[in-house]
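We were asked to recover a plausible sequence for a given structure. The inputs and outputs are reproduced exactly as logged, with field labels preserved.

PROBLEM: sequence recovery
POSITIONS: 92
GIVEN STRUCTURE:
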């Protein structure tokens, strides 16, 4: 490369390459966070349904319902942590 050439001609230095890379990275992070949140939300719904079934039974399973409620709380906390991490990454 001669000294008269603009350094922006190198692919890794071009602004549009950097922007594309940033968008790609953000897209991957969004997909990852979305999958994590979806997993947590599915767990919350399944746990809540299980808890209701345990409580509605002819002989309610209170111990099982309590444990299921604890799992629901853990899944909710994981979802909240995922949202917090994503917000931190975005600088919000």
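RECOVERED SEQUENCE:
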């Amino acid at each position: 490369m001669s000294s008269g050439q603009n350094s922006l001609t190198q692919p890794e230095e071009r602004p549009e390459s950097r922007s594309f890379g940033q968008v790609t990275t953000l897209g991957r992070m969004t997909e990852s966070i979305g999958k994590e949140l979806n997993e947590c939300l599915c767990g919350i719904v399944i746990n809540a349904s299980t808890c209701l079934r345990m409580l509605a039974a002819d002989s309610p399973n209170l111990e099982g319902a309590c444990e299921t409620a604890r799992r629901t709380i853990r899944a909710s906390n994981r979802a909240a942590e995922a949202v917090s991490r994503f917000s931190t990454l975005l600088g919000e």
